[in-house]
Amino acid sequence: MGMERMANQKPGKDNFTRNLVIAVVVGVVLLMLVPTLISKKTNTSAKVPSSVSASHGYGIVFNGDVQGVPVVDIYEDFQCPICQQFEKLNGDYIESLVTNKKATVVYHTLSFIGPDSIRAANAGACAADQGKFLNFHKAAYANQPQENTGVWSNDALVVLGAAAGISSNKFDTCVRGGQYQDWVSNVAAAGAKANVNATPTVFVNGKEIDRKTEYFSADKFKAAVERG
Amino acid sequence: MKKYQGWIALAARLILGGVLFAAGLLKYQHLDKSQMAVRAYELLPISLANFMGVVLPFVEIAVGILLILGAAIRISSLVGGILMLMFITGISQAWARGLSIDCGCFGGGGQVAPGTASYLPEILRDAALALLAIYLFRYPQSKFALDRQSADGDGKNG
């Protein structure tokens, strides 16, 4: 690079290399920043699974048409170990809310942990199209790998779907083709707008339940939902 | 002192620049998390926090590279120093208000279980880096730098 030589240059001499380096560094960073900023915007033309509602932050909605019941928004990442604990403790109760139509339940599959999360969220949406989101959800947490190990390849997620009782070529193509990837980033953008700063995060009727007490006690969680 | 000044500045550039570059790169790999980290400080309106969460890693990477190469040392160290003061302010106020957050300094971030947050080491580290930035701003003359070196040692470049 001849930096030593440059260091001995007399003042006033041409600064071409230095200025070029500055221009290239700043230019390249700006060229990367602008598309990244745009990609964080909600993509309104993204393909979304059938049970998804933009008015519910692009979440996967159950019992959206049932009136007079609490709305439970669950923000989670399929790869997050604490979400797995939460699922172990409260998963059956939440499923009963769905089957007994006792609450509108909205699942927001965030993906901040890494690419495996994006693939898993996409597969979750594909499962929703088959009417099997809850089965897939359960199977995913029961088989959750270590974070970002790449274990959740699309092929592995197809197998996971089969284990969850999904046998459909449409599901396989949807998972392998990353059909709902744009939707996954919309879910992330909506979560960011809703100020969700941890997973799991649960809102009941738009208000977060108490992080200190109500997440990891089955009784208190139930009480928080019923309180509405 | 003057004899070693160029070497001290070189070390300061590599440490400050290296830390900024690494921190920026780690955040860049998980931008959702980076946005989450900024929001969790509860200082900025949410939309601005989300914007900062994306922009900050890029700024860190650019300033880091420029410092390592020794180009535009004064402006780069000024920006680096301002970043450190911002981080110190953010972490201190989170500590004072009793928030439980991960500083998100090197990726990560967001809320953590109450009682597990550690703030003092982060503040001390950022304060040390801020001192390096101040030194470089005052004495930008440095070994192995792309910036032009003036004979009187009073760097006016950058």
What labels describe this entry?
heterodimer; A: 228 residues; alpha+beta; 2 domains; 6-stranded mixed sheet; 50% helix; globular; B: mainly alpha; two-stranded antiparallel ribbon; 2 strands; elongated
Provide a short characterization of the protein structure:
The complex is a heterodimer of chains A (228) and B (158). Chain A is an alpha+beta fold.
List the helices and strands and how they pair.
The complex is a heterodimer of chains A (228) and B (158).
Chain A (H helix, E strand, L loop, with lengths): L2 H5 L8 H24 L12 E2 L5 E4 L8 E7 L3 H19 L4 E7 L4 H15 L3 H10 L11 H10 L5 H8 L4 H13 L7 E4 L2 E2 L9 H10 L1
Parallel strand pairs in A: 3-4
Antiparallel strand pairs in A: 1-2, 2-4, 3-5, 5-6
Chain B lengths: L1 H27 L2 H10 L5 H24 L3 H24 L4 E2 L7 E2 L8 H19 L20
Antiparallel strand pairs in B: 1-2
Q: Give the N-terminus to C-terminus distance of chain B in angstroms.
A: 23 Å
Instruction: Give the overall pLDDT of chain B as a whole number.
Output: 91
Element-by-element helix/strand order of chain B: HHHHEEH
Work out the number of β strands of chain A. Answer: 6
What topology, given as strand order, has the largest sheet of chain A? Answer: 1-2-4-3-5-6
Shape summary of chain B: elongated
